[in-house]
Amino acid sequence: MQKKRLVIIGGGFAGLNVAKNIDKTLYDVTVVDRHNYHSFPPLFYQVASSGLEPASISFPLRRELTRRCYRGCRYHMGDVRAIDASAKLVRTQYEDIPYDVLVIAAGTTNNFFGNTELEKHVYTLKSTPQAIRCRNEILDRLERASLTADAGARRRLLTFAVIGGGPTGVEIAGALGELKRFVLKKEYPGIKENEVKVILIEGTDRLLRTMSARSSADAAKALDQLGVEVRLHTMTKSYTKGIVELEGGETFAADTVIWTAGVQGVAFDLENTDVKPSFGGRFDVDEYNAVRGLDDVYAIGDIALHMDEKYPKGHPQVAQVAIQQGRTLARNLSRPDSRKPFEYHDKGSMATIGRNRAVVDMGKMHLSGRLAWMAWMFIHLISLLGMRNKIVVLVNWTYSYFTFSSGLRLMLRPGKYPVRSYWND
Ligand SMILES: Cc1cc2nc3c(=O)[nH]c(=O)nc-3n(C[C@H](O)[C@H](O)[C@H](O)COP(=O)(O)OP(=O)(O)OC[C@H]3O[C@@H](n4cnc5c(N)ncnc54)[C@H](O)[C@@H]3O)c2cc1C
């Protein structure tokens, strides 16, 4: 029997779980990803705050695919730009890849809600390169502030605004708070703690809206202890020329604004079909993750929108949904005669706000403080791909726990030349 060509767009949590669990005697599997590594988004903020090196939260896809459970799977580097639904082709900047079955697992990207000015000037945390950029810029501000005596310039350089009070916003604001409280006096003696302002701006009435009210309150308290100013019920209107303008007219100067306030599905040109992504740029799927209106095309993870009675607005965009959808889809494609509808088993959620400060919700159980922080560390450690990464991360965390220090405050910027002008990318 000839194998079907299964193409998976995205080697994230969702895509890799399909590749790992699918029956390779039935499918010839190709994973296409714009990066040649698997990333671990929950720890991007630690790269941005110089807590971890990028390599320790990334894992080479080619190396991962050599494992026995992926035997026969191939990796193709490429940024998927179009899907031709009638010719059954996936188009990257380098090639057209034919498929019999397509799995879209490309996740999400930043959403600036049409504000192109904002998009051009804020820093983001949706990929490892973005996290590295953010780290470089934070360090750049501290270095520049150390060089100037001008009070206005120092205020602008040392004001860090984080927009969006979800887990990512809370975590990066907490990390900046720790920098202000514990690192500056050791490593930047020219900057006083009270000169640094970290402002977390959230449009709704509480932080961590997807978690319990107790978690929101505990997170706000922990941020306050770290000297982070939390502004609730506050919408950001614009950010131009270094000035943040809030709805209502208030303005303040900040040279660093980190945007964590919105995500949307990665977009592709959909050729020879009328199907369009639904709200949030997510593909509307049925209970088997089949994209409605497209033959042999499935969407899983953050980019899928599966609405049911329990989740009328779709499942939360978290790693567990992606992993579980990947596994279920692999099983269903491997055993088409006994398909099972997807059912999400919520294992709880957590966020950290710095050392000894975290919040965990598991069913009706709520934890905060050191115990929650240890649970957070344990879960994140075991979820990382690769033993080397687990060890490196553990060593880094242990070292910085006792020393309040990090050897990673490095501004590593790529060189500008040579320009690779005649290549497609
Ligand atoms: C900063 C941050 C913190 C988070 N913290 C948590 C947390 O603490 N707990 C939690 O459960 N979840 C967290 N999440 C959410 C979690 O990371 C996602 O739910 C999960 O990664 C979704 O998995 P996925 O496979 O759908 O997408 P991803 O993991 O995003 O993988 C998508 C893959 O597709 C590739 N790709 C994208 N577009 C293209 C294209 N056009 N062509 C080729 N390849 C492409 C990407 O390179 C990537 O490898 C966080 C997310 C972020 C951004």
Question: What features would you describe in this structure?
Answer:
With 425 residues, this protein is an alpha/beta fold. Among the domains are: 4-34 and 78-110 and 263-334, FAD/NAD(P)-binding domain (3-Layer(bba) Sandwich), CATH 3.50.50.60; 116-261, FAD/NAD(P)-binding domain, CATH 3.50.50.100. 31% of the residues lie in helices and 24% in strands. The protein is built from eleven helices and 26 strands. It has helices at residues 13-21, 44-48, 61-64, 116-121, 128-147, 151-157, 167-187, 213-225, 319-334, 370-383, 387-403, and strands at residues 4-9, 27-33, 37-39, 58-60, 74-77, 82-84, 89-91, 96-98, 101-104, 108-110, 123-124, 159-163, 197-201, 228-231, 236-240, 243-246, 251-253, 256-259, 263-265, 269-271, 283-284, 297-299, 304-305, 349-354, 357-362, 365-368. The protein has a five-stranded parallel beta sheet with strand order 5-2-1-9-22, with helices on one face. α1 runs parallel beside α9 (319-334). The longest helix has 21 residues, at 167-187. The two termini are 38 Å apart. The relative contact order is 0.16. The model has no long low-confidence stretch (mean pLDDT 95). Flavin-adenine dinucleotide binds at residues 9-15, 32-35, 39, 41-42, 44, 79-80, 105-107, 125-126, 167-168, 266, 301-303, 317-320, 322.
CATH class of the domain at 116-261 reads: Alpha Beta
Strands side by side in the biggest sheet? 5-2-1-9-22
**Segments where pLDDT lies below 50 for 5+ residues?**
none
Distance between the termini: 38 Å
Helical segment count: 11
Rounded mean pLDDT score:
95
Which fold name corresponds to the CATH topology of the domain at 116-261? FAD/NAD(P)-binding domain
Question: How many E-type strands?
Answer: 26
CA radius of gyration is 22 Å
| Main sheet overview | 5 strands, parallel
